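Bench log, entry 3. Co-assembly request; chain sequences pasted below exactly as received.
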Amino acid sequence: MTAERATIVPKKDGIAIIVYNSTFDIAMMPMMIAQGALSMGMEVGIFYTFFGMNALKKGFRPKMPGMWRMFTGMMEKKMGRQGIPSYAQLLKDNIEMGAKVYACTTTMTVMGVRKEDLVDGIEIAGVAKFLDMAASAGTTLAIG
Amino acid sequence: MTAERATIVPKKDGIAIIVYNSTFDIAMMPMMIAQGALSMGMEVGIFYTFFGMNALKKGFRPKMPGMWRMFTGMMEKKMGRQGIPSYAQLLKDNIEMGAKVYACTTTMTVMGVRKEDLVDGIEIAGVAKFLDMAASAGTTLAIG
Amino acid sequence: MTAERATIVPKKDGIAIIVYNSTFDIAMMPMMIAQGALSMGMEVGIFYTFFGMNALKKGFRPKMPGMWRMFTGMMEKKMGRQGIPSYAQLLKDNIEMGAKVYACTTTMTVMGVRKEDLVDGIEIAGVAKFLDMAASAGTTLAIG
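Structure output for the full assembly:
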C-alpha cells in the first residue's frame, strides 16, 4: 500500500501563468502558450494582476508597446495571415477550451474594475489562487 | 524501507523569484506574492539582479513606469486604503516573516552598490543561489 | 518492483526559459543564468519569441532600454572588467556548452526572419517545444 501511494508523483502536466501587463506582445504570449498547452492536454490557469487587468476588459484590443503602437494593425494582419485569431477571439477560445482565467481581487478594487467590465467566463480570486495553481503545475511563468 | 524512502517527493511548497526591474508594479508584485506565500506556509526566496537591485536600496520608493510616474502617490494611497503597506514596509515585513532576499553579487560590483547601501537583512549571493532555490521550489518566476 | 519504480522522481535539474524581448538587460539575463546552470550540470533550453527573436540574429548587439540606450557601451565595459564576455560571445559559448536554443517558428514567419539571419546552432521550433522542455524542467522562467 505504501509503495502504491509512493507512485503518486506531483502533477507535471499543468501550466500556471501570472500576467502583469497588457501590451500586444504581453497579451498575446499567454494566449498562444495556452493554445499550445490546451492542445497538448495540459491544464491551464492564468491569473491577471496590476496592468495585466486591462487584458480582461470587454472590447479590449491590445496595442504594440511604445513607438510601435501605430504598427498594431499591421501586426494583427500579419498574424491573421498565419491563421492566428485576434486577441479577443483567442481569449474566448481558451476559456471555452477549458483554460481557467482569473482577475486579481485586489487589483480590481484598487483600479475600480467591476465584474461586469470583464469578458464572460472570468473568475475573480486572490493571489492565493495563483499560488495554489502554481504549486500543482509543472510549469510556472510570470509574463509582463 | 525502499517504499518509505520512495514517499519522499520533491518539495513543492516553495517559491523562488528573480526580479530584474524596479518600477512600482514590478517591485510590488514579488512583495505581494511573498505575503501570500508566507501566510500559506511556503518558503520564499527572492533574488534581485540588474535594474531590480534598486529595489533593495535603503529609502527606495518605487515609481510607476513611464508617463504614469506622476500617479505614484495616488496609487500608493489607493493601495493603502485596501490595507496594503508601503513597498518599504512590505520588504521589511517579508524579511521578518522569513523570506530570504538576495542581492546579486555581479550586479552589485558592476553598478558599484555596497552592502551598506542595502536595507537590513539582505544577503549577497551569485546566480547559483537563485538556481539552487529554484531547483527545490515548486514555483519559479522571473519578474521585471 | 513497485517500490523501485516509485523512486523515480521527476527530473528537477533542468531549466527552461522563454525570452520575449531583447534589450541589453533582457538579453543578458538568460545568458548569465545559462552560464551558471550549465556549470552546475543542469540542462538548459531557451526559446525566443516575439521581440526576443532579435537576440538570435547574426551581429546583434543588445542596447540598454529607453533613455539608457546611450550607456550601452559603458555597461559593456563595466561588465567586461568583471570578466563577463559580450552578449554575442555568451550566446556562442552557451550553445557550445550544450544549451539548446530555439527560435519560434511563428515569430520567424510573422516577422520575415530566415534561418540564415540567425547565428549558428539555433534550432527552429514551435511553442510545443518550449512546453515540452518546461514540463521536464524543475525551473521555468519567462524573461522579457
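The first strand of chain C starts at residue 14 and ends at 19. The two ends of chain C are 45 Å apart (CA to CA).
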